[in-house]
Amino acid sequence: TFRGESIDRLPPHKIVQLGMSHVPEGRGIFHRMTVHENLLLGAYQRNDDLAGDLDRVYGLFPRLKERLGQPGGTLSGGEQQMLAIGRALMARPTLLLLDEPSMGLSPLLVETIFATIAQIRQQGSTVLLVEQNALMALEIADRAYVLESGVITLQGTGGELANNDAVRRSYLGEE
Predict the structure, then answer these.
(1) Residues 57-99: pLDDT tens digits?
(2) Is the torsion defined by CA of 95, 100, 160, 121 positive or negative?
(3) pTM reported for the whole predicted model
């Protein structure tokens, strides 16, 4: 249910129209399309102020502006993740779903991606993040949940869970 409406039988374009965008694990970019074409595809249901939204994406990810004409498949893993997030933002979501955004990225890129996620939140989008890098996720989370075998076993603010002894032992590698 999203905004009081059941979405389990809605086609993806209707869910996007409601204000939800999803960045899947593995990024899901279009490898043969250029960076610019991938971004425009994120706004395929709109025809208003695309330039302003492109500027927003380039402000968050300046690297993408440098690579506008380059095929998405030739980008590094981090750049592809930036492109996937940028494409999702082009739909102007109120809820952005991110599935494992740090997967396969170098530690430096992970920090960059998480700093950008924090910026996206500050700009007014709600972010639902599924992430195995517990430390980074808890640092930026307002609310956090620990799932074990599909069941919520702990919940609280990011700070509360980051300071929880069981979480620190099991997920943060501390004794």
Answers:
(1) 999 999 999 999 999 999 999 999 999 999 999 999 999 999 9
(2) negative
(3) 0.91
Measure the CA–CA gap between 75 and 82, rounded to whole angstroms.
10
Residue 41, C-beta contacts closer than 8 angstroms, at least 6 positions apart: 30, 33, 87, 90
Cβ contacts of 28 within 8 Å, gap of 6 or more: 84
**168 in helix, strand or coil?**
helix
Q: Are 127 and 88 in contact (CB under 8 A)?
A: no
108: burial class by Cβ within 10 Å (0-12, 13-18, 19+)?
exposed
What does the block give as tokens for 69? 């004409």
Q: Kind of pairing, strands 143-148 and 151-157? A: antiparallel
- DSSP per residue, 21-32: EEE-TT----TT
